[in-house]
C-alpha cells in the first residue's frame, strides 16, 4: 500500500515540478520587489546605488549577528531534511485521506460520486485540504506558546535577536517534525471525510496544486515573514492573509505583542479567535525574549545550546507537572 501511495505521489509531483520550473521566474521578481520596498523603507536617505540597496536589504548588524549565524547553520541542517519532510507530509495527508475514505466506504457503504469534472474535484479537495492544514497549523502554533510543556521546544525560534530569511529555519528539529506532521494528519482526516462524502478519490490535479502551495508557502510566505523589513499589505488584507509585518510583530519582545498573530498563511483565524494584532503606523519593536523570560544569558547563541537546552527545559517541565500532580493527590491512611 505504501509503495502504491509513494508511486502515486511521485507521479503527481512530476507535473508539479514542471509547472514550478515555468513559474520559477516569479520568485526572483518577488524578491526584487521586496528588496526595493526595503530600500524605500530605510530611514537614511541616500542616492540610489547598487551598494546602498544591498546594504539596506542585507544590513550587517542583522546578517552578521550571533543569532543569525545559528540560524544559518541550523538552516543548512534542516534544508537537508526539509524537502524529504515535505514529501512525507504529502504522503501522510494523502495516505490518511485514502485509508479513512476506504474505511468509511467498507463499514458504511460506498457513496455515489457527487462530482464528475476534474476542476470541481480539484477545487473542492484543495480548498478543504488547505483550510484544514492552515486551521490546524494555527492551533498547533498557538499550543506551542500556551502549553507549558511544548513551549521549551518552540522557544528557540523566539530567541532570535535578528530576523533574516534564515530565521525561518530557526526551529528545533523535534518541533520542526511535529509542527509539520500534526497539521498534515488533520488535513488528511478532513480530506478523507470529504472523499467519502462526495464519493470521489484524490484527484492527481489536487496533489499538483498542493505541490504549488508548498512551494509558495515555503519560498514566499514563510521566508518573507522572517525579514527585518516591515512589509504590510494594508490593514484590510492583513486581516485575511499573513503579511511579513504581521509575523515580524509575532517575534516582538514587547509585552503588548505577545501571543498574537499565530496564523501560518491566513490571519483570519487570529481574527476569529482574538489573537490578531494590527501594527499601528510607525510602531516599532525589538525581537527576542526578555530577561524575565530567559535570564540574562541567551543559551541559544550557539548551535550546541540551541539543540540541548530545549531538552533540559522540556524535561524540567515534565518534572514540574509530575510534582504538581503529586501535590494534589490525596493520601490514604
Automatic annotation (TrEMBL):
Can you say where in the cell this protein is located? Membrane
The Fatty acid hydroxylase domain extends over 126-275
Which GO cellular component terms are attached? membrane
> Do the record's keywords include Transmembrane helix?
yes
Which superkingdom is the protein from? Bacteria
Please name the Pfam families in this protein's record. Answer: FA_hydroxylase
Q: From the record, what ranges are coiled-coil?
A: none
The cross-references to InterPro entries, in alphabetical order and at most eight, read: Fatty_acid_hydroxylase, Sterol_Desaturase_Related
Record key words, sorted: Membrane, Transmembrane, Transmembrane helix
Sequence intervals crossing the membrane: 23-41, 76-97, 122-140, 176-196, 202-221
- Name the Gene Ontology molecular function terms of this record: iron ion binding; oxidoreductase activity
Q: Give a GO biological-process term.
A: lipid biosynthetic process
Protein's name in the database? Sterol desaturase family protein
